[in-house]
Amino acid sequence: MKLYGGDFCLFNHSRSIPTTSITSGTSYIETLFGKKFENLSYRELIEVIKSNDESPYIELKGYKNQKWSELLDDIMKSIVGFLNSSYEGVLILGFDEKTKTPTPIPPEIVGRDKFQVEQRVRDKVISKLESVPRASRPPILIFKVYDDSECGFKQEGFIIAIYVAKTIDVVYSYEGKVYVREGNKTRKLSLHETITLIESKRQPLIIPILKVKSLTNNRMKIELSLKNVGSMPAREWIVVMVLYKKLLSTDRKTCIFKYKYIHSSRMSLIKEDEDVKILQVERKIGWLSIFPLKRLIIDDFEVIMESCSPEADMHEITMHFTMTINTDVNESKVAGMLVVDAINMRYSFRCDINVQSYLTQEIVYTDKIVEENSIM
What we know:
Layout: H1 28-33, H2 42-51, E1 58-61, H3 68-83, E2 89-93, H4 107-110, H5 114-128, E3 130-132, E4 141-147, H6 148-151, E5 158-164, E6 171-173, E7 179-182, E8 185-188, H7 191-201, E9 206-216, E10 219-228, E11 237-244, E12 246-248, E13 255-264, E14 268-272, E15 276-282, E16 295-307, E17 316-327, E18 330-341, E19 346-357, E20 363-374
Parallel strand pairs: 1-2
Antiparallel strand pairs: 2-5, 3-6, 4-5, 7-8, 9-10, 10-16, 11-15, 11-17, 12-13, 13-16, 14-15, 17-18, 18-19, 19-20
């Protein structure tokens, strides 16, 4: 693999601190609804439906006097579409997608008891899902059924909401056909698109994790590790990390600290100026490959900070970084931040990730990571 040295061109970095579009929750759906999906009331579901249009994350399907087999067909296509997309999603059955008004599913179609309805729909969905390669574990699906007593309907009927977690290791299909959620539509993939999607799953997907191990006075020790969330080992890899030297205050406008010194034992220095420090590490002989679902600790590096202003306060500081992770089959682009609360000795690691295949030049994986922990 090529080493990046000399004139550094892997990043087209500017002198400004990068911005990211990171949300503040561990799940977009949880952030959207304001609580965990399984704890969602019907009233809270209605509020989100009324204030949000259909999107990559939300699909509405009104009941249109279908038979059970026709309803199940619609459910399967939508769930498979969510499973094969880059995002988690929620399918809401019994709400018209145009008028956003309830169209309850009658009990003669799905059953008369809400728990029976939930069990029937779940069992049928799981039994009809197919995957390539064969899934080692079932997908994460959460079913919520609301009956007429909860919804205030005059007639008997049900609203069914299904949460679908994103998957990254297999391609799902229904009756031999592959679907994907794009924008506010679910569509069937062509043979070429299906092959491309399957190939995109058969590769390593490397994500970084930064942990604050200690914080004392003006010293902060940070651990960098890599985790493979893909289905193939990463046998070759290079990591290039750009650390922006200005540590920002809570309002992200005032520089309150800057790096005085950064020490790393395994990462080599590529370039440094008054704004950034660029470090690189590669897989060396004797180092383990990064196998699927495994995490490899790369290095601990220590940051020594000095004040930029007399009113500098260690209450909360934000450190920005960008990163490129090259494997033998793809490239991950990462933009993120560490937000450190020095008073409560906690930190938040946040980043956006896009993985691009060398072969197809397509984005095969996107993710937003938010991890909050105590400083060890």
